[in-house]
Design goal:
There is one protein chain. By secondary structure, the protein is α+β, with helices and mostly antiparallel strands. Helices cover 26% and strands 32% of the residues. The chain has helices spanning 4-17, 30-37, 41-53, 83-86, 108-113, 153-158, 160-166, 186-191; strands at 57-60, 64-67, 73-76, 95-104, 122-131, 134-144, 172-182, 200-209, 214-222, 227-230. A six-stranded antiparallel sheet has the order 4-5-6-9-8-7. It has a two-stranded antiparallel sheet with strand order 1-2. The protein starts with a helix and ends in a 12-residue tail after the last strand. The mean pLDDT is 86.
Amino acid sequence: MTNKYLAIHNDIARQIEAGEIAPHSLLPSEHELKERYDTSRETIRKALTLLAQNGYIQKVQGKGSIVIRSSMVDFPVSGLVSFKEMTGKMGEKPRTLVHELSRGKPDAFVKQQLNLSGKDEVWKAVRIREFGGGKVLLDKDYLNVKFVPALTREICENSIYEYLENELGLKISFAKKEIVVEEPTDEDKQLLDLEGFHNMVVIRSHVYLEDASLFQYTESRHRPDKFRFVDFARRIHSGGGA
């Protein structure tokens, strides 16, 4: 049987994600919630604590519980999907703003990440993802021109992967990812709506084609309240003891 506080948490979380409870609004008081769910104040407090831990609300002394998000996007940690595919089921259509698109010689860092020679060139695409009323994700993509000879702002606004696979016929196969939490950079502060957040979830990916050619290095910088990082794990049984 589900714990009462967990059932209350799930019900309120569902209402927030469905937009039935608006962001920046106040939840009913503990007393009102106690009456509504016909339970103890202790159970309500446990549900509110869990909602706060999961990023749905912020408890403010003297005010109560303020809703700080209306929805989150599930980000598949082990998957390799485009932003367009990832947000395709959202009721609200996200917007992509192309901040920069350029072609040229890579700097030393990018050159090292993509194992490039001095003659190689890269596309640099910097895109801002906007949804939920704010700019919450910064994508910085570097693609080897050898594999991607042409790229336009229109393609970047829509989906680079859709273009690579459907137009260029590239077979994107796998990626190596690193996930870290960092303080926002000056660029993050300039381009994103951080709203007081002092941490960014940063995913750095090296992306390979079917023939194991490394063709892309990506850095995705996420405001932490808008993304839920999910994975599916399976235990590999070796036949040994516990």
